[in-house]
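User: Hi! I have a protein structure encoded as tokens and I'd like to know what sequence might fold into it. I'm fairly new to this, so please keep things simple.
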């Protein structure tokens, strides 16, 4: 285990400093894989209702 000032001071209080680091999932994906994972739900949405993509775009423009 790594000993730092944080682990020595906060460890006895029951706080694990390593649990506070959040994994960024975008760093776990290569760009091509991310594009495929992102596009698949959009393709499913289009297959169910082609107009839903326009609704999603309208909503996205309002948010951004």
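Assistant: Happy to help. Inverse folding works backwards from shape to sequence: for each of the 64 positions I chose a residue that suits the local structure. Here it is:
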């Amino acid at each position: 285990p790594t000993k730092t000032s944080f682990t020595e001071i906060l460890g006895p209080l029951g706080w694990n400093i390593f649990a506070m680091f959040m994994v960024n999932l975008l760093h776990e994906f290569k760009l091509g894989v991310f594009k495929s994972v992102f596009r698949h739900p959009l393709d499913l949405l289009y297959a169910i209702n082609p107009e839903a993509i326009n609704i999603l775009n309208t909503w996205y423009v309002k948010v951004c």
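A useful reference point when you look it over: The radius of gyration is 21 Å. Feel free to ask if any position seems puzzling.
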